[in-house]
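Bug #77: duplicate submission created two jobs. Keeping one. Sequence:
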Amino acid sequence: MSKPFRGYFGIAMTPFDAEGNVLWDDLQRECDFCVRAGIHGLVWPVNDSEYTTLSFVERAQGTKLVVEAVAGRIPVMIGVADTSQAGAVALAQVAAQAGADSVIAMPPWHVKLANKALIEGYYRAIAQAAGVPVCIQNLDPPVGSGLSSALCIELCQKIPLAQYVKEEREPHGTFVSELVSMATPELKGVFTGGTQLGLIASFRRGAAGNMAATYVPDLDAQIWDLMEAGKETEARRIQDAWCVLEKIVRATPGSIARKEILVRRGIFKYNCRRNMGAYKLDEHFLYELDHALEVVAPYFKR
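Kept job's structure:
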C-alpha cells in the first residue's frame, strides 16, 4: 500500500460465545462485511477488540485470519501493543509474517515506560520488527501514557516508519488540531479515536481519518466519502441518523449493543464479551434498538 492511509478505518470487534471462546468464523465474516461496506482500512485487535483479554496465540491466529479475510482489498492495521517491548516486538513480527500493511501500538499500559528514551526505544523496536508503517496510539492515563504532541512529532522524525498518530487525548478536538498544526512531512496523517460522533469535526480539523468500532460501517464510510466529495449537508444527514442509534448504544455496558447490532445484521452469533458471559437485553431496550435501526437502515448497503 504506497498511498498514504486516509479515511474511515474500522476497528473490528472480537466475537465470543458465552464461555469466552473466540468465534473465528464470525471474525472472518465481520472483516468481509466491513470491506464490502466501503470502509477504507481495517484495524484489529485494539481496545474496542477487547485485545487485553486475548492470549498471544489468539492474537497471532487472528492476525493471520484478518489479513487473509481482507485479501488486499483495503489496508490492514494490526494492533501490537503489549505490556512490554518484548511482547510488542513479538506481535509486530507476527504482523509482518502475516502481510499486514501497518501496525498500531500505544506504550505498555500496566507498568508504564519511565522516560522518553524508553518510549523511543519501544517504537523503534516495533518498527524494526514490523517493517511497515507504525501508528502511534496516544490516549490519556490510566490506560494510555498521554504523550505530548511534541513527542509524537519527535518520534516520527527520529523513526522513519513511525508515520501516523491516532490521537485520543481529551479534550479530543483540541489535541487533534494541535497535532495537525505541528505536523511535519514525517507525520503522514493524524487519525482520531473516540466514536464516529467526531468524524465530521475531525475531517474539518484536518485529520487523515477516524478509527472506531465498526457496527454500522456502511454509514461511517459514507459520511467520510461525502465529506471528501464536499457534500457536508448529506454527510450530516447520515450522521444525525447515526446519533439516534448511538444514544441507544451508550445505554448498555461496553460493546454489548454494538455486538447486538452485528447479531441483528447477521454477522455475529452472540453479543457476548469475554469474561462477562451472555448478556440479555430486556424487551424495552430491544424496542428502542429496533426503532433506532429503522432510522439508520436506509443507509445500509446490505
